[in-house]
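#struct-pred
JK: can someone run the complex with glutamic acid? inputs below
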Amino acid sequence: MWGSGAGYGRGVVVAEVRGGECSMDEGERSRRAEAGRGAAEELLARQVSGVVLTWVDTGGITRAKAVPCGRLEHAAAWGVGMSPAFDFCMLDDSILKGPFSAGPVGDLRLHPDLDRLAVLAALPGWAWAPADRYDLDGRPHPRDGRGQARRAVERLGADGFTVRAAFEVEWSLSLGHGDEFVPACGGPAYGMTPFMEQADYLRDVLDALTATGVSVDQIHPEYAAGQFEVSVAATDPLAAADTFVLVRETIRAISHRHGMRASFAPMVTTDGVGNGAHVHLSLWRDGRNLMSGGDGGYGLTPTGESFAAGILSRLPALLAIGAPSAASYLRLIPFHWAGAFACWGWENREAALRFVPGASGDGARAANFEIKSFDATANPYLLMAALLAAGQTGLAEKAVLPAPVDINPAKLEPSRSVPALPSSLEEAVQALESDDALAEALGEPMITAITVVRRGEAALFDSCTNEEIVARTRWRH
Ligand code: GLU
Ligand code: MG
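RT: done, structure tokens with the ligand placed:
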């Protein structure tokens, strides 16, 4: 990644403390200004005109503001203005009103994280930096998902743990720029034929990702017509969420250049399989992967098991964050490898938690849990924050996993059946509202924004057909 290790560190230097919240002091602002100045010089030398700052809203949409390189110094120190009303924005861009929001009044500052600055190969002349959101006094905003993810990493770090994480990105490629979905290739699933038909496009995606500093593990045609997937190397959770944004925007840009359109929506048509955004997680301590080499089932350590059990037991509530749109529940159904069952199992692709042990001899590096139920309408930062909090709660409770499921859970005898996951947004929201651990980890302002936006979107689609839900979600995330 360009910029990392270059001394542009955001750092965590803070000085003033008011009401328990730290705000940036003058020294921190001038340190950031200097970093911005240095970064701008390097960008200009690389023929970059400006930097696009992104943040992801409560409803999972990536929103952007750009500054010319000459303005980066100021943006780094003082941020770029953005209305807080977008915390209550729905996927159709209507903004919810209520006592929770000051409506058109107020401002937030988007501060580029220059540690993650990248020159965008897919958008020549542009660089990108994810933004942290602060209030006008320079205090981290309580509804900033990226800040929440950073704090969740720090909380686990204080207990001696690190997490390695990665999002898998699935997308559906449509011919032309129209709103209908016209698959850019046919089958067979995972076939060499769709690969060949879109080989130039896939090479351009791969080259752009690599040039942008993304470490690609695999890229391939998926099951459905026009569907593809890219998986990337695991990193720390905050970087994984940033990478998820970067990968999607790179794919979107390359698709556009090839005269096509990429949809990351849970469903692009009402039938067939959808697009997931599976999250891979492994827990580490003292350089050791706790998902491997233990005495538990499949080599799990008791600590690794507790972390996974904390996530599994909170999955209904986590769906309000990881499967946050009405369309999410059209995808999250049995027989679609979407993780619709609240259970876990060894390499079980119908279980919400698929345990991936890694090939024999490689487990210490590769073993992890893949959480399959989530999709790309989620805010990845918020999802990471919630997942880490759920896992940490499992550690505190010394939680244990139920028996693993080693067949398709839909085919279990009634006596062995596993709990159903929420089948609607409202059910997931109710589960989140009754989860004290997640409420404490994310804080009341964040929980309010999540529940308000989810209920707003549920009402928006209340009287819609599945066709309408799919059509109105298809190109938004
Ligand atoms: N496309 C499936 C989903 O909706 C996942 C297929 C797979 O296992 O990669 O999550
Ligand atoms: Mg897949």
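RT: quick notes.
The domain at 15-139 is CATH 3.10.20.70 (Ubiquitin-like (UB roll)).
The chain is about 35% helix and 20% strand.
JK: thanks, will look after standup
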